[in-house]
Amino acid sequence: MKSNKFWVLFSLFILPLVFYIFLSKGIYKYANLPILTENVIDVKEIDSLHKISFENNLTILCFLGDEINTAKGSMFNLNQTIYKRYYQKPLFQVVAILPEGTQQQYKSVIEELSAYTDISKWQFVYANKPTIQLIFNSLNTPYVLDNNSYSENAYIVDMNLRLRGRKDDEDTSDGKLYGYSMKSISTLKNKMKDDIDIIYYQLKKSAEKEARKKREN
Question: Is the pTM of this model over 0.90?
């Protein structure tokens, strides 16, 4: 008899409370993606035609360097796991910053990539190594570029030139995740994808809020 009463009370009071707490935490996590760095240098500063910009775009930024074999693997992982999922969404782009003089090296890789994918949202920007370092430094991360101007991480830069990431990552010592390893399919799939989804969720909610304001006015 007492057992039956316990389960009735559990289903009426405790279970809904647990569900509410779980839901509240989920909404909080899904509605917020921390800003880790502000005032990232815009790529249009190094694009000679000033056609490519971080501003007003949701950018996945990568530094592929001049060691083509390393770069190719990272590039294809990012393409298959992230780019193909989002390239048809508004604002989305991937910007790859490459060392000046590697145009011919990358030509065949880009052609190979385009054989499987519509690469219209891939942007390739070539710059000298000191300039590449300057852009990278503006992200203000604990990471470094190697001697080939390569970083194994891809970075999320939002429409307002802000680096987005995590402050509660379970796999880093201080909880902060500034970039997502392109060498790890699981990191791209389970972390970067989720975090891009959060930003699109924020954009959707912001658009809905603006639409409500206009209707009320």
Answer: no
